[in-house]
Amino acid sequence: MATVAQWIEGARPRTLPNAVAPVLAGAGAAAQLGAFSWWRTLLALLVALALIIGVNYANDYSDGVRGTDADRVGPLRLVGSGAALPIQVLTAAVTCLGAAAVFGLALVIATGHWRLLLLGGMCLAAAWFYTGGRSPYGYKGFGEVTVFVFFGLAAVLGTVYVQASTVSWEALGCAVAVGALSSAVLVANNLRDIPTDTESGKRTLAVLLGDTRSRWLYVALAAVSVVVTVALGLAHPLAFIALAAVLLLVNPVRVVAGGRTGLDLVPVLRDTGLAMLAWAVLAGGALAFA
């Protein structure tokens, strides 16, 4: 039976910034529109956290039963390592995704934005079919695009919309920057796993692009945050402070561009996530005071 520590590791805590950052950036953009609501932000955060933990457990289950996690370089996988039974991990995934649905429904009922039920359903479907089902899209190179859409555009703009009932170009800029950095986290993860994913038949975007082009994609996604920061800063000079967060990307970019492989890429996931979180705090805070 898996220990509490193993369950926590299986939830992949290094990915949590992918859930927190878009909500913080969205809250800042909502404040810039004069519509910040702490309890709506909190509900949005609970949705995002429950969703990403559910996604991680669902991926662990699906990859584990397919055997694609049998020989891994990265952190522990519960099913692949044999630490937990597949049914236990599946139950954890369904529980977390169910919690995300409940929190999301509460937010919709409280705000009256019923059209967001469709977005919520799409989020749940995307969470499961990433590696689940007969034809998982994560095995066909669409993982990074989906992360950009759901943990970038949908998460940031959704957080703004449930508070302001509209979105702004600043909110869209935040959504693009956070989505790009969130996708960069997955690119780094899949870059590390190219050898094992190729052997198991898992055709991620990194496998399809190859090692060199995947590294350039990571650098390009990291650069998006610089472009967005400059654009925000030209309109709201205080937003230039977010360039401080961009400095946190210097080392991971150096590691990726330098051709490092295997375990050397593991810290890149953490550092990119932390840079994304710092960017959301600084850019969101700057917009809130704009």
UniProtKB/TrEMBL annotation:
It comes from Prauserella salsuginis. Conversion of 1,4-dihydroxy-2-naphthoate (DHNA) to demethylmenaquinone (DMK). It comes from the Bacteria. Its main location: membrane. This is 1,4-dihydroxy-2-naphthoate octaprenyltransferase. Belongs to the MenA family. Type 1 subfamily. It catalyses: an all-trans-polyprenyl diphosphate + 1,4-dihydroxy-2-naphthoate + H(+) = a 2-demethylmenaquinol + CO2 + diphosphate. It is a multi-pass membrane protein. The gene is menA. Keywords: Cell membrane, Membrane, Menaquinone biosynthesis, Transferase, Transmembrane, Transmembrane helix. It is found in: Cell membrane; Membrane. The chain crosses the membrane at residues 38-58, 78-106, 112-130, 142-162, 168-188, 216-249, 269-289. Its EC number is 2.5.1.74. One of its GO terms (molecular function) is 1,4-dihydroxy-2-naphthoate polyprenyltransferase activity. Pathway: Quinol/quinone metabolism; menaquinone biosynthesis; menaquinol from 1,4-dihydroxy-2-naphthoate: step 1/2. InterPro entries: MenA, UbiA_prenyltransferase, UbiA_sf, UBIAD1. It holds the Pfam family UbiA.
